[in-house]
Amino acid sequence: MVKSTADELLALVSRLQNERAEHVAKIESIDRTFSSLGIAVSPISKARRVGRPAGRPVGRPVGSVNRKKGKRTRGKFEVSGEQAVLDFVKQNKVVTTKQVNDFWVGQGRKGKADNALSKLSREGKLQRKNIKGERGSQYRVG
Fold it and tell me: CATH topology for 81-141?
């Protein structure tokens, strides 16, 4: 008589259940030995998984949002960002970081003007003064 796949599967499950019962008995024996020696038995903790966390879809990086990825483009303007900031400060005498960033965005530039402000301050073209009790700084032509 030929064994069917179902019979083979039942035999495998039965064998695995017997092996599991043997392992459980051995663990209970070890626990009894530990307790007789006064050693506290800590529960078996699951080992940390390697790889992506369970339940995370494959192919999506961590923290990504459903958005299209496009090539990042640089804006092209007649006047460089640093020169535009310097001209803006010259026109207005004293300006705050917020005013410069509003001007920057108003020109259609991406991001903020913080890098340009830092560079101009380092080069001595602008003087920076902290505003007490507020965020940002005041800038004037140096």
Answer: Arc Repressor Mutant, subunit A (1.10.10)
- Considering the entire predicted model, what is its pTM? 0.50
DSSP code string of 45-99:
PPPPPPSSPTTPPTT--TT--S-----------SS-HHHHHHHHHHHHSEEEHHH
What SS3 state is found at 126?
strand
Query: How far is residue 129 CA from its own chain's centroid?
Result: 33
Please list the pLDDT of the chain residue by residue as tens digits (142 residues). 556 888 899 999 999 999 999 999 998 999 889 888 888 877 666 666 677 667 666 666 656 556 666 777 778 888 999 999 999 999 998 999 999 999 999 998 988 999 999 999 999 999 999 988 888 899 999 8
